[in-house]
Amino acid sequence: MKLWSRAADVAARTPAARNRLVDFLRAASILAVISGHWMLTAPYLVGGEVVLGNMLELADFTRWLSWAFQVMPVFFLVGGYANAASWGAALRDGKPFAAWLDSRLRRLLLPVLPLIALWVVLAPVGRALGLDPSLVEGASRIALVPIWFLAIYSVIILFVPLTYRWWERYGFWSFILPAGLATLDDALFFAGFAALGWLNYLFIWIAVHQLGYAWMDGRISSRPARMAWGVAGLGALVGLTVAGPYPIAMISVPGGEISNTLPPKLPLLALAIAQAGLVLAAESPLRRWLSRPTPWTAAVLLNGMIMTIYLWHSTAMVLIIALAGRMGGIGLGVDPATGAWWAVRPIWLGIYAVALATMMPLVARFERMPGPGRHASALRQVAGALAMCVGLALLSYAGLGGATPLPVQVVGAVTPLAGALIAGLLLTPSK
C-alpha cells in the first residue's frame, strides 16, 4: 500500500501535456514479454533430472502466439517517442549531450550489474554442486537473455542526436533508408552472407525507433492512416512467413535453421509496423482511460521499477525451478505437451510473480539510485556504453558456466563492470 500511495502522489502531479500512453505501453509491453518468457520455458523431469524445455519447440501452435507476445517493437516505438521528447527538450534548454546521455544510461544500465554479479556466483556454484554444465548454461542463458535488449537499445540511444537530426531533415526517408538496408541485408543473408545478417540489429531497430519519432511529431495522426499502417504491416508479415521463406515464430526456436530475431529479420519489422499502427489507432480511447486515477497510478508504479522487473523476472523463474528440482521435482512431473500442463500454468505464473515481488525490495534500489550531480565526458560515456554492450551481448548469447570457452565468459562478465567504470556510471552521489 505504501508503494501504491507513493505512486498515486506522483500520478496526481502528472503534467497535463504528458502523453500517458507512452508510459502505459512501456509497462504493458514489458509485462507481455515477462508473461511470454514465463510461459515459454517448460521445465519437466526426465529420469529424475530437470530439463528446461521450450514450448516453441514442443508445441507448434505456440509459434503463432509469439505474434502477440513478441512486443519488443512496441518498446522501441515508445523509446523513439520518449527519446525524441527528451532530446528535443535538451536541445531547447541547451543541455549538453553528455548530461543527457548520463541520465539515460544510468537508469538503463546500472540495474543490470547486480544481476550479472549474482550469476557470476551462481554459475560456478552450480557446477561445484555437480549440476550438469549444460543445465547450468541453459539456466544462465534463460536468466540473462533479457539483457540483449539493453545491448542494442543502448547503442540506439548513442545514435539519438544523429537519428533525430535525420528525422527533422528527411522525415519518413529516415525510416525508409534503414528499412531498405534491412531488406538488402536479408537478401545477402539468404544469398550466403550470413554474417552480415547481424547488421540488422541496427537497421531494423533504428527503423522502428524512427517510427517513435514520427509518432512524437504527429506525422501519423489520423486513425485511418494508423489502421492502414497496421493492416499493411500485418499483410507483409503474413506474406513473409506464410508464403515466404521466413518461420512463423517471432522468437528463436531451438534447433531452427532460421530465426526471425537472432539476428532480426524483415518479419520483425513487419510486426513492428503492424503493432505500431494498431496500437496508435487506439490511442484516443486509451488516453481517455488513462486519465482515470487507478490505471494511471498502476502505470506510474510499474514504470518506477520497470527495468528491475524486466531484468530479474527470468532469474526469479529459474530459482523457483531449481528449488522445485531440489525438492524432488515437485510440480515438474507434468508433460508440457498436455492440457494438464497448461491447466497448471496460472499456478506457476503466480509462484514466479511472488518470487519476483519478494526480490524487488532488494534489487529495485539500483534503478532508483540518485545521480551523482556530475558526469563523465560524452566520449567516455560512449566508450563505456559500447564496452558494456559487448559484455551484455556475449552473456545473453552464451550464458555462463557451460561449454562456452572460459575467456569468452570472462569477457562477458567483466566488460559490463569495466564499461560502467569508464562511463562514470558508478560515480558516487555528491554531498
Task: Describe this protein's structure.
The protein has 431 residues and is mainly alpha-helical. The chain has one domain (2-11, 27-423). 70% of the residues lie in helices and 3% in strands. The chain is built from 21 helices and two strands. The chain has a two-stranded antiparallel sheet with strand order 1-2. Strand 1 and strand 2 form a beta hairpin. Helix 6 (97-109) packs antiparallel against helix 9 (148-158), helix 9 (148-158) runs antiparallel to helix 20 and helix 12 packs parallel to helix 14. It is globular. The mean pLDDT is 90.
Q: How many structural domains?
A: 1
**Proportion in β-strands:** under 5%
- List low-pLDDT spans: none
What percent of residues adopt helix (DSSP H or I)? over 70%
Throw out a few tags for this protein.
two-stranded antiparallel sheet, 70% helix, mainly alpha, 431 residues
SSE layout and pairings?
Layout: H1 2-12, H2 20-40, E1 41-46, E2 49-54, H3 55-58, H4 62-69, H5 72-93, H6 97-109, H7 112-128, H8 133-144, H9 148-158, H10 160-170, H11 173-190, H12 200-216, H13 223-241, H14 266-281, H15 283-290, H16 293-303, H17 306-326, H18 339-343, H19 345-363, H20 378-398, H21 406-423
Antiparallel strand pairs: 1-2
Structure described in brief:
This protein has 431 residues and is mainly α. Helix 6 runs antiparallel to helix 9 and helix 12 packs parallel to helix 14.
